[in-house]
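Exercise 7b. Backbone tokens:
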């Protein structure tokens, strides 16, 4: 490890013999994520320069490897961003109309998975309600929709339905899919970080969603699927009694 990097990591570590506290771990994780992000950016820049230098001097089939390297770097950046969503302190976010929140989450899913049908249903009584920390809820719902879209190898359908709970200041949102669901003996483990039943997946999606929703005073649980198969996640969120200016999706 280069001298400067080693010193940065040592600065975040406790004296020898002391047990690492949660805040120590969070600080060390932040340093490592920052370093990793910088290194990947450096690799991408070096690859671009090298590709330009070799243009016309090597066979085209050799140059075709460089976009693959850059793509892998983008995947690493995406991984770091998801680690940030799970580990980094959550910034404050203003309240937002639930309709805007839901449409933003669905739009992001459609953009990432253009071949997966995403259905959105908002009951009229819920549409104008506002929820706290809108950006956090968008992030949580995006993770739930990504989980739904990735089921059955991307051959599933995702549905998001929102309605108010009668007699309460609470909204209920269900995110369901037509995938294989979860094993009967593992539903409680689905929200654990790095736990996954899918190959080549990190196992952070539901953990991030759980963190974001609960940080807004909400709850997140599994419901029996609405169809013969699939997964249905129930989100309950508190609503504001006063509404700020409506945001634009």
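Sequence design result:
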């Amino acid at each position: 490890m280069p001298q400067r990097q080693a010193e940065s990591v040592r600065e975040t570590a406790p004296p020898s013999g002391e047990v690492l506290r949660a805040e120590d771990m969070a600080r060390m994780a932040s340093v490592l994520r920052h370093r990793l992000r910088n290194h990947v950016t450096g690799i991408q820049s070096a690859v671009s320069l090298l590709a330009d230098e070799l243009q016309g001097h090597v066979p085209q089939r050799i140059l075709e490897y460089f976009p693959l390297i850059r793509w892998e770097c983008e995947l690493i950046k995406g991984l770091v961003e998801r680690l940030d969503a799970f580990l980094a302190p959550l910034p404050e976010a203003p309240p937002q109309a639930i309709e805007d929140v839901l449409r933003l989450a669905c739009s992001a899913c459609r953009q990432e998975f253009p071949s997966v049908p995403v259905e959105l249903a908002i009951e009229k009584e819920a549409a104008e309600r506002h929820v706290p920390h809108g950006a956090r809820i968008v992030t949580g719902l995006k993770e739930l929709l990504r989980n739904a879209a990735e089921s059955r190898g991307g051959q599933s359908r995702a549905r998001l339905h929102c309605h108010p709970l009668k007699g309460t200041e609470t909204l209920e949102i269900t995110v369901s899919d037509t995938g294989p669901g979860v094993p009967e003996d593992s539903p409680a483990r689905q929200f654990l970080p790095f736990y996954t039943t899918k190959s080549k997946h990190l196992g952070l999606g539901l953990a991030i969603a759980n963190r974001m929703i609960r940080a807004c005073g909400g709850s997140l649980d599994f419901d029996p699927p609405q169809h013969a198969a699939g997964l249905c996640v129930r989100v309950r969120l508190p609503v504001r009694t006063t509404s700020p200016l409506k945001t634009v999706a």
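Instructor comment: The first strand starts at residue 96 and ends at 97. The chain has eight helices and seven strands.
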